[in-house]
Amino acid sequence: MEQLGLFAAPQRLFTCTPSKLGSYEDCPRLYRYSYIDRPAPPKGPPWAHNSLGASVHNALKNWYALDPERRTPGALPTLLKATWVREGYRDEEQEQKAYRRALDWLEAYVAGLDPADDPVGVERTVATRTETLALSGRVDRIDQRGGELVIVDYKTGRSELSEDDARGSRALALYAIAASRVFRKECRRVELHHLPTGRVAAHEHTEESLGRHLRRAEQTAADIVEAEAVMAAGGAADEAFPAVASGRCRWCDYRSVCPVGRSTDPAEPWAAVD
Ligand code: SF4
């Protein structure tokens, strides 16, 4: 059978999301703790900034689930209360302040939206395949403007975002590729919507720049497959998946189990929302 090239076994696709690839690019050890080691190492306590982000994302998702005539700023307190995640805050006072702030962000944000607009997708999973990847991911929002699709990603962190962040985001580029294939429409524009400031950082991709992101994603997947093969062949797991120290370690879920992370000062779970 081997002589019959036509019947050669197809190459196995690497199943991934942008965040899975991103975790390896940030730190191979973080990838190993998250996706390979089983039982998974224990994570640290929940982060208040993740709770805040999830609450705001879910409130916006549910705002779009309302009938257009009910999509008003007045609907937001009920929506935000219903989706509020309480974990990680220092105390009730900090949590209440964060809730008030999140509501202000949402009210200002939806005031700039047309309630009659129905996005093509809200919290929509898109997926596609390449020769080596089976890629999927959930997009905060997919708009249709002027016959083209636009990828919208909500951000709730403290730091402001620039056009470079939109241009450099592999996740946004991969979402654009997948959305374009799923909906059979052009999708070049990607946007980061920073709710604390109302600022939108956008980038218009070209076929070439999307292709570059895709090649980088395929290269990362190839690196992961190679590291996994080294480990499966009995190579040292810590060498196959090295720990890469960075400012991220203080905020890493696996800081307490990682020898590199343990040597850094831990961030308080609520520090990023103060
Ligand atoms: S603590 Fe730092 S080095 Fe260790 S896994 Fe996390 S990000 Fe990587």
TrEMBL record:
Q: Which residues form the PD-(D/E)XK endonuclease-like domain?
A: 17-259
Keywords noted in UniProt: ATP-binding, DNA damage, DNA repair, Helicase, Hydrolase, Nucleotide-binding
DNA repair listed as a keyword: yes
- Source domain of life is Bacteria
Which Pfam family, an example, fits this chain?
A: PDDEXK_1
What is the name of this protein? PD-(D/E)XK nuclease family protein
Organism, by scientific name, is Dactylosporangium salmoneum
Q: What is the lineage of its organism?
A: Bacteria, Bacillati, Actinomycetota, Actinomycetes, Micromonosporales
